[in-house]
Amino acid sequence: MFILNLILGATYQATTKKLDGFGFRLNIEPGEQNDYFESRDGRPFIYENYVSTGGWISSNYNRKFALDLRANIGALFEKGRDLFNYDIEVEPRVRLQ
Fold first, then answer.
1. Do 12 and 24 form a contact (C-beta atoms < 8 A)?
2. What order do you get walking across the sheet with 65-78 strand by strand?
3. Cα 51 to the center of its chain, rounded Å
4. Chain centroid offset of residue 47 CA
5. 31-69: per-residue pLDDT in tens?
6. Rounded to 5 degrees, what are φ and ψ at 59?
7. Can you say how many angstroms the Cα of residue 57 is from the centroid of all Cα atoms in its chain?
8. Inter-residue contact 70 to 54 (CB < 8 Å)
9. Which helix (H) or strand (E) holds 35?
10. Which one of 7, 55, 78, 96 is least enclosed by Cβ atoms within 10 Å?
């Protein structure tokens, strides 16, 4: 038995001259997907047409105060199912001398 799960993705990340970093990503899972790791009874969890995207910003950790921000969003485009998820993370960092 041969099962193919197609996942298309793109990412971009960069660092500025002041050593601040940022990036973003886009993932597309077109068609029927079989998730064997989400199984509860040995059968795969089957879903269709999932799209997720996200981005992040990270300031230079050499500063006394640094900040990491991350945001992600995803949606399932399948008839009869309604799935939408998001998360936002804020991580302040203080460097003590």
1. yes
2. 8-15, 21-35, 45-58, 65-78, 81-94
3. 10
4. 18
5. 888 888 877 888 888 888 999 999 999 999 999 999 999
6. -85, 165
7. 14
8. yes
9. strand 21-35
10. 96
The Cα–Cα gap between 52 and 48 comes to 13
Quote the mean pLDDT of the chain: 91
Residue whose C-alpha is closest to residue 53's, from 34, 70, 32, 78: 70
Rounded to whole angstroms, the Cα distance separating 58 from 67 reads: 6
Q: CA dist 3 to 6, 18, 29, 45, 90, Å?
A: 10, 46, 14, 13, 38
Length of the chain: 97
Is residue 38 within a helix (H) or strand (E), and if so which, with residue range?
Answer: none
pLDDT surpassing 60 at residue 1: no
Side chain identity, residue 94: V
Give the Cβ contact number of residue 52 at 10 Å: 17
CA–CA separation, 24 vs 39, rounded Å?
30
